[in-house]
């Protein structure tokens, strides 16, 4: 808990959706932030006599929620948005890998800034990046991504990815864009040892994250899982994203993706996978039994025509599920708060129709669900005393939302709501819709310059 001498911020007069176990909500309530923790939350006015109050915020007309938690992304893709817009996953990868294989540290840093900035402006307080492209001689890509997150003040998980199955081995990426088995394992271990923080209020964590069944060897999956468990960190990869992937696994391994993952040690409560679109009842039962998490990326799945993940069935079975932006070359908006709405709407196109998801389930996916998937459910994802002070104030009294009586319904079903304030670890990173810690106009210029530079290099190659 925060020490009694901690400086306090008092937020009052707002609707509050705590997203705690009981979905407690207050039509008008308060939050007290003490240092980097939530000290108290409740109905009405904040307690009288609080000491060391350095700021009081009258949040009338706002909804307070936990900060959004992004569980899957590829930051580097920010500088290749708008390309291959009419492709399925495999054709999209074939079209873009030759360009991605030419990224360097400068490009990766700029792309991370752009990706993080867009999410932070839209209420994300915990981000993750699955970075798996490490061209030879490209510099310290992992370090540049972590530096961008630290400068912005966002809580961050780097899923240190890897690929060792290139074109010569029947994979999709160019030969010079992959690592050797041993090189990938050694670099991943070094990244964990250098950057991972296991403490309660950690701002940077690292996961072990070989890319996908069709871009890594079986041995990299097996040894990657062993490495993660030896180091005490989480595991992440792509799984069951497309019918082509399922066919690939059956042809190459004689089994579907879930059985293959289980055979390599890749099911468990320390694992989460992106997409999981093509899952049968047995697959969902295996994920539920092992508490393997899922990063649901509805916009990307629609953009690449991958299909509709069975999220309602996963939730009913007890599978941990969070939301993901996915790479911005397959979700050009780069925002997570729009995924609340898209998750609800797209899942209603499935077999459960209007009973698939409701507004509060969607909000839970984007907050506490994501926290559980990242292994941080006891630290973030809900507004409760003792948890970390990651809080968002959404402005709900403008033209876009004022006529919707229920603020949670307004947030999920309505237009993207403006963020008046976003706090991470008790520090404000967004004020009145603008980033408070970095120059977003400078980031826009930098990302445009690096996108143009990458396009020139790729064209010359």
UniProtKB/TrEMBL annotation:
Coiled coil: none annotated. It comes from the Bacteria. Keywords: Hydrolase, Metal-binding, Zinc. It holds the Pfam family Amidohydro_1. Gene3D superfamilies: Metal-dependent hydrolases (3.20.20.140), Urease, subunit C, domain 1 (2.30.40.10). SUPFAM superfamilies: Composite domain of metallo-dependent hydrolases, Metallo-dependent hydrolases. Residues 64-426 form the Amidohydrolase-related domain. InterPro entries: Amidohydro-rel (IPR006680), Metal-dep_hydrolase_composite (IPR011059), Metal_Hydrolase (IPR032466), MTA/SAH_deaminase (IPR050287). One of its GO terms (molecular function) is hydrolase activity, acting on carbon-nitrogen (but not peptide) bonds, in cyclic amidines. This is Hydroxydechloroatrazine ethylaminohydrolase. It comes from Streptomyces yokosukanensis. The lineage of its organism: Bacteria, Bacillati, Actinomycetota, Actinomycetes, Kitasatosporales.
